[in-house]
Amino acid sequence: MRFAYRQLYVQDVDQASQLQELRKADLDSRYCRGYDSPMQIQVPRRLDYALRILTELASHGEGKVVPSRTIAENQQIPFTYLQKIVNLLASRGLLQTFRGKDGGIALVAKPESLTVYDVIRVVEGEIPMNICVISPDDCPIYEQCGVSTVWEAAQEMLIRFLSSVTVKDLVERRFTLPQPSS
Fold it and tell me: 156: domain range?
């Protein structure tokens, strides 16, 4: 049986384990040398592109048809990937597409009422900080675990903030951070 480790292929589990330990040591040493933590909460590229597409369309004005290539160039999104995301957003009623010489994409949703959290739910689904937050019954220690409370609070604050920022706010680069509840 072969295991892949970066570009190397190894023949047995022992070699794979040794390589994983080397990788962990490499990450630990990079972290100690001042690099960013190897663990990151990262926004999926598809979500980032979707928000950039919506922001670009909103910046052109309500209902204005913008050529797909213009959006791809302005937002530096690969054209084929842009088409896939546009199809998803159009199928959910946020955009409308037009074919032909004067074709392109128009924003159907109101930028002042479309929130970042709305877009996240359309593109990615819900935001689970941890499995215990979305499915406590699947966690055998949920009732006595204090960590799940932290994830629940973090998720609540994140959702509250993302629900407060609209596409119009992104265009205007205007939004305020929510204050933690007491």
Answer: 126-172
Return the pLDDT at 17.
59
* Residue 130, in any domain of the structure: yes
CA pair distance 80, 182, nearest whole angstrom: 47
* DSSP reduced 3-state for 125: coil
DSSP per residue, 37-84: PS------HHHHHHHHHHHHHHHH-TT--B-HHHHHHHHT--HHHHHH
Specify if 67 maps to a domain: yes
Whether residue 50 contacts residue 94, with contact meaning beta carbons closer than 8 Å, is answered with no
| Whether residue 60 is found in the same domain as residue 99 | yes
Both structure tokens of 160: 């509250």
Structural domains counted in the chain: 3
> Exposed, middle or buried: residue 96 (CB in 10 Å: 0-12, 13-18, 19+)?
middle
Tokens of 152: 């629940």
Computed over every residue of the chain, the mean pLDDT equals 81
Q: Mean of the pLDDT values across residues 156-166?
A: 92
The residue with greater pLDDT, 176 or 150, is 150
Is 51 found in the same domain as 27? no
* Nearest-5° Cα angle at 87, 121 to 110: 60
- DSSP secondary structure letter of residue 115: B
Task: Give residue 100's region: left, alpha or beta (phi > 0; psi -120 to 50).
Answer: left
Locate 15 and state its tokens: 């070699």
